[in-house]
């Protein structure tokens, strides 16, 4: 026979244990339990079951909750600050250890080595093995070398005898060949183009005609379309690495990366190795890729070597797709416990790097050291970033202050993705090349 379940008191105060037990009086919690007397019929193989109906209600005293919230509002920031300082000190110690390890000669190391490092007056002793020292040194070498990667890929080459021009594409931050330069899939059949260079800004609709050739969707339109419309031109794409963490957590090691000026010299050397500079040159840059184009031209103009100067002397035109000539306000965001990568620091709104570069670029244009045609296309729609829509490059920042300037009703990602060969974004590029090539 099954014993009946004992009936608890109708109202029972429950004590709750918590690490902050001294604050528990700030919350008045009451639990009320109502038990029904309904029972089921007891059979030989099924015991009697009581149906229990429990209702829990929490009553909070408003004034005491305010005290509790103010306590956490004071304590939590202090805890975060202490944790941040501790993490920063740990990485300082690790950096010191790395510097000590980098001076060790592997040939003179015994199976076990005792290294003494003295950070902030404390003696830190670690025992390491031969293979560990070698592994750390190899990793240090990789961190210093792996980030300096620039790759120039030839997408189309008519041959040295037929070649009359070079068209060079440079993507932006987090971009890639088959990510930035894919065919646009946006569904607009008409583009309302805004001419921002005229005193009275004019708007006209450009109908996007269907492509006469029913070609499949292109994952790289410079490679698939330009050989058909400019068969005499060699098409080159410059690819470069980007820090995988634009905002890197403070507890992660900071990679040694080259800046925009140094990386542009890597691009220059790669292009010179390909023989660029003998024919007309046309540049196409999206987002920060346009800043690299400007940096390459400035470095080439300021160089005293002819092989570098030829890059600027032979340049005939530049297409800018939403290039932040004065930086982007998004790069100025400060996020707790995260630090910005060098890619973001170089494109902060009105930062020294972008303003100095733009000033030099304009001086070269005004002095006719750069006799080129410039066309700029600006995004006029917001871009979805996560769960919010933002303006990545403003109209004011995307204005190169020279040449033609058009506002296009597309976002930052699609501004460099023509819908087809009849699209305004693509036809203006072809027009620039055909008009200024030495054919």
Task: Please provide a written account of the structure.
With 439 residues, this protein is of the alpha/beta class. 33% of the residues lie in helices and 24% in strands. It contains 11 helices and 18 strands. It has helices spanning 62-102, 130-145, 177-180, 221-229, 260-273, 288-302, 306-313, 342-345, 352-366, 395-398, 424-436, and strands spanning 11-12, 29-39, 50-58, 112-117, 124-129, 150-156, 165-170, 190-195, 202-207, 233-240, 247-249, 280-286, 315-321, 338-340, 373-379, 383-385, 388-390, 404-408. The strands form 5 sheets. Strands 6-10-7-12-13-15-18-8-9 form a 9-stranded mixed β-sheet, sandwiched between helices. A 3-stranded antiparallel β-sheet has the order 1-2-3, with no helix packed on it. Strands 4-5 form a two-stranded antiparallel sheet. Strand 16 (383-385) and strand 17 form a beta hairpin. Helix 5 packs across helix 6 and helix 6 (288-302) packs across helix 9 (352-366). The protein is globular. 26% of the residues are buried. The model is unreliable at 8-65 and 101-146 (pLDDT under 50).
In short:
With 439 residues, the protein is an alpha/beta fold.
Q: Supply the number of helical segments.
A: 11
Poorly predicted segments: 8-65, 101-146
**H and E order:** EEEHEEHEEHEEHEEHEHHEEHHEEEHEH
Largest sheet: 9 strands, mixed
Q: Rg, please? A: 33 Å
The total strand number stands at 18
Helix content: 25-40%
Which geometry do the CA atoms define? globular
Observed structural traits:
alpha/beta, 439 residues, globular, 24% strand, 9-stranded mixed β-sheet
């Amino acid at each position: 026979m099954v014993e009946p379940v004992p009936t608890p008191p109708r109202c029972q105060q429950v004590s709750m244990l918590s690490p902050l037990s001294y604050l528990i009086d700030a919350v008045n919690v009451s639990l009320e339990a109502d038990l029904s007397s309904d029972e089921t019929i007891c059979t030989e193989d099924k015991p009697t079951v009581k149906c229990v109906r429990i209702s829990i209600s929490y009553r909070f005293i408003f004034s005491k909750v305010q005290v509790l919230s103010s306590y956490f509002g004071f304590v939590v920031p202090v805890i975060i600050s202490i944790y941040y300082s501790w993490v920063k000190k740990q990485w300082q110690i690790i950096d010191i250890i790395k510097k000590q390890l980098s001076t060790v000669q592997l040939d003179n190391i015994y199976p076990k080595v005792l290294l003494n490092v003295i950070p902030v007056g404390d003696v830190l002793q670690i025992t390491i093995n031969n293979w560990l020292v070698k592994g750390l040194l190899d990793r240090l070498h990789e961190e210093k070398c792996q980030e300096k990667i620039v790759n120039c890929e030839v997408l189309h080459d008519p041959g040295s005898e037929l070649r009359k021009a070079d068209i060079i594409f440079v993507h932006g931050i987090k971009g890639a060949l088959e990510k930035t330069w894919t065919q646009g899939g946006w569904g607009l059949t008409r583009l309302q183009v805004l001419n921002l260079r005229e005193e009275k800004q004019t708007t006209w609709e450009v109908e996007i005609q269907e492509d006469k050739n029913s070609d499949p969707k292109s994952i790289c339109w410079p490679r698939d379309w330009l050989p058909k419309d400019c068969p005499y031109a060699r098409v080159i794409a410059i690819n470069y690495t980007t820090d995988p963490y634009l905002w890197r957590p403070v507890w992660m090691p900071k990679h040694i990366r080259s800046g925009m000026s140094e990386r542009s010299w890597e691009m220059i050397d790669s292009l010179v190795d390909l023989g660029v500079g003998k024919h007309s040159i046309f540049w196409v840059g999206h987002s920060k890729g346009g800043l690299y184009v400007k940096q390459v031209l400035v470095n080439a103009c300021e160089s005293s070597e002819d092989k570098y100067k030829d890059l600027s002397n032979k340049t005939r035109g530049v297409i800018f797709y939403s290039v932040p000539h004065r930086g982007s306000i998004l790069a100025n965001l400060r996020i707790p416990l995260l630090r910005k990568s060098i890619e973001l620091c170089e494109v902060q709104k009105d930062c020294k790097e972008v303003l100095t570069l733009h000033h030099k670029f304009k001086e070269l244009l005004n002095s006719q050291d750069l006799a080129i045609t410039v066309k700029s296309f600006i995004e006029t729609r917001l871009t979805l970033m996560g769960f919010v829509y933002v303006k990545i490059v403003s109209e004011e920042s995307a204005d190169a202050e020279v040449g033609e300037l058009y506002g296009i009703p597309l976002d930052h990602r699609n501004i460099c993705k023509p819908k087809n060969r009849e699209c305004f974004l693509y036809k203006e590029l072809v027009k620039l090349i055909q008009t200024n090539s030495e054919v």
